[in-house]
Structure formats: C-alpha cells, structure tokens
Write a structure and sequence with these properties.
This protein is of the alpha+beta class and 143 residues long. The protein has 3 helices and 8 strands, in the order βαβαβββαβββ. It has one domain: 2,3-Dihydroxybiphenyl 1,2-Dioxygenase, domain 1.
C-alpha cells in the first residue's frame, strides 16, 4: 500500500542550465548531488553502461529531514532525451516486497523486482502505469 508521495523527477538536457533555473531562479534548495553507475542502476533500470547524475532538491520551507520532493536527472550514458520515458513519479511504500507481489498479480508491469540500493537505506523498483508512465516504488529500510 502506498504510504506517501515521494518525489517527481525531470530528465534534463543541460544540468548547469537546469540548476540555474530550479535553484537560482525558482529558489529550490539542493539537498544532494549523486552519480549512479554500475550494476545496481543497470539492473534496476535495465540499461547497460548507465551513468546518471541526479540532483535531489527541496523547497525552502520543507523540513530538512524529509525526503526531497523534486529531482533533476542528467543522463551522461546513454544520452537520454529530456522527452524520454525516464521522467517519473515516486511513492514511498510500507512493505515493498508484499506490494510488488500484489501489484504484479493485478497486472502491473515492472522493470525488475525490488532491489536494495547500494546505500542500504532503501529498497526500490520501477513499474509502469497503463500509459507507460514510469513509477518508482521505494521502501525505507531500518538500519
């Protein structure tokens, strides 16, 4: 069952220009800038040779200990169009393994089963809505 809305993601063509717009013009705050590459993102997204920089952002009034509600994704490898299918919405899930099984039985298509992120704090999988919009499902793990 969905616990809460997690974030929205926008794929960008130029990370510097997008940071200037979202951070400097709109006033969003950068929480983290991370790079994803290697086996984990290749498996969870089913794309070989992936190298992705993503920026987690929040509003000024958003509590610092809450998840960032907005992400910018800049695909270094492979080059992904800003209009590509990797824009997504994300939901926090209470028990991802159980929800994955339930949704699969109801016909929801997934890229991969739930996988623990390398950080060890989350378990993640991606699925599709009826219009092939990408949905990320995330469970926060207790450490």
């Amino acid at each position: 069952m969905i616990k809460s809305f997690r974030h929205a993601c926008v794929v960008v063509k130029n990370l510097d220009k997008s940071l200037k717009f979202y951070r400097d013009i709109l006033g969003l705050k950068v929480s983290k800038i991370l790079t994803a590459e290697g086996k984990y993102p290749q498996t969870v997204l089913n794309i070989k040779g992936i190298k992705l920089t993503y920026v987690k952002m929040r509003t000024k009034g958003q509590p610092k200990n809450s998840p960032s509600v907005f992400e910018l994704h800049y695909w270094k490898k492979p080059k992904i169009s800003a209009k590509a299918r990797y824009n997504h919405i994300s939901f926090t899930i209470q028990d991802l393994d159980r929800e994955y099984k339930r949704l699969s039985k109801l016909g929801v298509r997934f890229i991969s089963p739930p996988m623990q992120a390398p950080c060890g704090y989350t378990q993640i999988c991606f699925g599709y809505d009826p219009d092939n919009n990408l949905i990320e499902f995330v469970e926060d793990l207790k450490k």
